[in-house]
Structures are given as structure tokens and as C-alpha cells.
Amino acid sequence: MLKSGIDQDALIEQFAGASARQTAQLRQVVTEATLKALQGREMTLKNIRSVVKSVAEAASAGAAQNVMPKVDMEKLLASAVAGVDDALLKAVEANKVALARFVDQGIGLQEKQLKKALDDLEKFEDTMFAAMKKAAVGAGTTMEGPWNQVLEKFQAQGSQSGAQAAATAQQMAGQMQQALREGRAASFKAAQVLAQSYTALVSGVLIGLSDALTTGAAAEPAAKPARKR
Prior knowledge:
The chain is built from ten helices and two strands. By secondary structure, it is mainly alpha-helical. It has a two-stranded antiparallel ribbon with strand order 1-2. It is elongated, with a radius of gyration of 20 Å.
């Protein structure tokens, strides 16, 4: 089933057949699936929420079907949460790259689209956890306990993407204010055109970052035989 750009059936199969030693592999699979779903769509909180919920639902359904020996349900779900966090960290990086371009153009917080972008960054972590909690509620009584344990622990520690998003929002806001004080300001028309294309720009940057990540992962196995020789 394809939902929110996620091949849920493929993810369910991965979690259903995972052994106790495959949590790191699952984390990578979730990261790649989440990044793929986020590509090609505007980077809005609504789209992020939808993708995260779909991933969490698939992970939950697959984990519930898993009958492998010595499998820890909490570890399976934790790998899904960590994988989503890794993907959103890339989304934060894409936002940072896009915002830096606007700062260089002299566009500041007077543009409501950019102010909203910074506000949305502050809400990254809340959006992620809210989507997962919603998926957990619909997971049924069997998975309710493991989900509660995983999300409680993860929320207490805080997500990497949430911490980085908050830091990025603060940093970019400061840089925009500095640019304004230095008199670097774009023309009103140019500012409007650029600001309105913000979410599309972020999506484009994310595609580039994701492609680089995929290329690096594909090249890594090829390097091992060379070292053996």
C-alpha cells in the first residue's frame, strides 16, 4: 500500500522479518523511506506529519507480525523513531541551506513566509512526536505498551532533529536581523518572489542531500574489496 509516498507494505515486511540483530539496518531503511517520501513535495509541517505517521504505522504493523526469536518490540520501534529522526535531521539541514540563501539575498523576517519557516522549525520535534503518538494510539493494545515506553524515553532525551531545528531557527533569525542592520535588503518584489518559493527550494535542497547520502551509502560496500586486495 502506498500512503503519503511511503510503500507501507515494504516497510511492514522489513519489520515483520527483522531479527534482534537488524535494528541498525531497520533504522537505515526507515531513514531512506522517509527521505524518499519527503522528496517531491513541499516541506510543510502537514506533509511531514503525514509521512511520519505513515512510517510509524507501517513499523508498528510489521513489529506486531514479527515472530522471530528474541526480538525486542521496543528496540524495533525505537529503530523506527531513530530512523525518522535521522531523516528529519536532513530536512533541517535543507531548511538551513535554503534560509542561508535568503540571508545572502538580504531577505529578512519582514517576509511572512520566512517568519513562518522559522516558526515551523521550532515545531519540528512536536510535529514528529504528535504524528507518532497518533500512530501509536491506533496500533492496538498489543503494541500500546512498547510504543509508550519508546516514545516516553525518546521524548525525555529529545530528538536530534528537534534540537538542531531550534538551533537553526535561532541562528538564522539572528543572521537575518544582522543583515537588516547592515542595510542589506532585497527589493520588495524580489523578496516576495523568493520567499514564496521557500518550501519548494527546501524540497529541492533535500533531494540533493538525500542523493548524496544514497550515493555515499552505495559506494561504501564497493570500497571494502579494494582494501582486502
